[in-house]
Amino acid sequence: MYPFRYERPQDLAEAVRLLRVHAQARPLSGGMTLLPTLKHRLARPSHLVDLARLDGLHGIACQGGVLSVGAATPHAQVAASPVVRQAIPALAHLAGLIGDAQVRQRGTLGGSIANNDPAADYPSAVLGLGATVVTDRRRIAADDFFTGMFSTALEAGEIVTAVEFPLPLRAAYCKHRHPASGYALVGLFLAETSAGVRVALTGAAPCVLRWTEAEARLSSRPADPLAAIQQLQLAPEGLNDDLAATPAYRAHLAGVLLRRALGQLSASPTAIKD
To answer: What architecture (CATH level 2) is domain 57-274?
Structure first.
């Protein structure tokens, strides 16, 4: 690990100022992605600006058909929250599947999506639900936020403050876990909304993506959704190829998880609006 200066701002304005003044500074939230990167000397920030204790970045609220989760809210709080469990049960389920207990206590929603690890769980929920990422400067639609492997639309020094999830009619998340890390070999978030169905995949490709062909088949509201996707196959071209799984295996997993998610969806009640 290279040497750096640790900064603990008292409020969001001070954090923004520190990141603006120090060009090589990095924001630190739960540190579940950043700290291993530093340990392996893959990054060399001049300063770490700790966001974890800033009051304005915490909290969960549901109002006007939108669930808002503060960027520094740990995964464990999202998983256990009665508000999340009532509004979007699939999001609470997803949060409870992230890593292990230690990771869920420290890792945060904002840190997860800002780092945009190809196998992280939260990006699939943000994209699958068509959420809005709120920063200290602007609001970014999920479809515009994730731009590539470990990259997003965030500008230098821009801080994620919250994510706003529109409540779906129903939603489900299914994941095939790596046995050691708990990361998703493939994770699939399926959301039924008034505007149609959205299907987002994580772990399959270098960046979270929407499975548009599955969306098209399911958005027509077929009488038998499982029959509608029976012959559907995700193309393996461009999918991740590593020691854990081949592109063909990941493509196969996507189909398996889609069928499982549809099974969950058929068993779940319509979300209760606030």
So the answer is: 2-Layer Sandwich (3.30)
